[in-house]
Fold:
Amino acid sequence: MAAEPPAVGGAGRTRRVARRATTPAGPPVADRQTAPVLDDLDDTAVLADPEDEVDLDEGPGTEPLGARAAGPSRPVLDLLIWDAPNIDMTLSTVIGARPTAASRPRFDAIAAWFVEGAGDPAAPDAPEVEACVFANIPPVVGSLQRWVEALRGFGFAVFARPKAQPDDDIDQDMLDHIEVRRHSHRLRRLVVFSGDGRNFAEPLEELARSGVQVVVVAFSEVAGYAIGSDVLDFIDIEDVPGAFAAPLDRVRLDALPPDGAWLRPTRSLREFVSSYTARRNG
Structure:
């Protein structure tokens, strides 16, 4: 099912100073899906004081941070993080138009692909699975309530933050939740749907080097940080089976036909020159 996503944040977002979550989130429930994301992340994590920061470079033989805490009893987890503002914005960029219901991702297919990648749920070493969508909610909610309820019905937890100011984004909330799960569980696989290298490149590569399988799923046109990484796996979102009801109106440079292809402009030449002239003379 494709549904209307939240309004996107601005392209020029400034990354907040990273904080470290130091206590685990709620326990998993019986059906091997982790507990829902609480509305207030502070209910699930006590943030460390700067003086209590752990030295990440503690010398040879030190256990990676991603494998630390609580001992072997911590359950194994496959975690999916969906950056709704970024995916919506980059989808608009890729197709050169505002997405419609027909061109939006199908979260039912995304859920099926993710859970299938976790393996046989009856296996002794089967991981728990958790999928979380992070969204900004504008002052006028409109149809977003139905979108959120549809996601919840597909098994996704939703973290929703009001978008009252331009810098009210969910960048740090996503990083905080990943850090919480690093402490409450043993992360086996982390799948991040986002092309936001400014927010994710460094922390995701750190996780990958600690032994977590990290997969970035985004549009190849805007995910250079993942494509060029030596430690991150990358999948174009359109390569997820069933992710879109029909092929998107795009030409991928990594999948060109042998005879080449035309990439038409995403806006008219006159429209661009008009806006350019207005900016220059303004």
Observations:
- The first strand starts at residue 76 and ends at 83.
- The first helix runs from residue 84 to 95.
- The mean pLDDT is 79.
- Residues 28 and 263 are 48 Å apart (CA to CA).
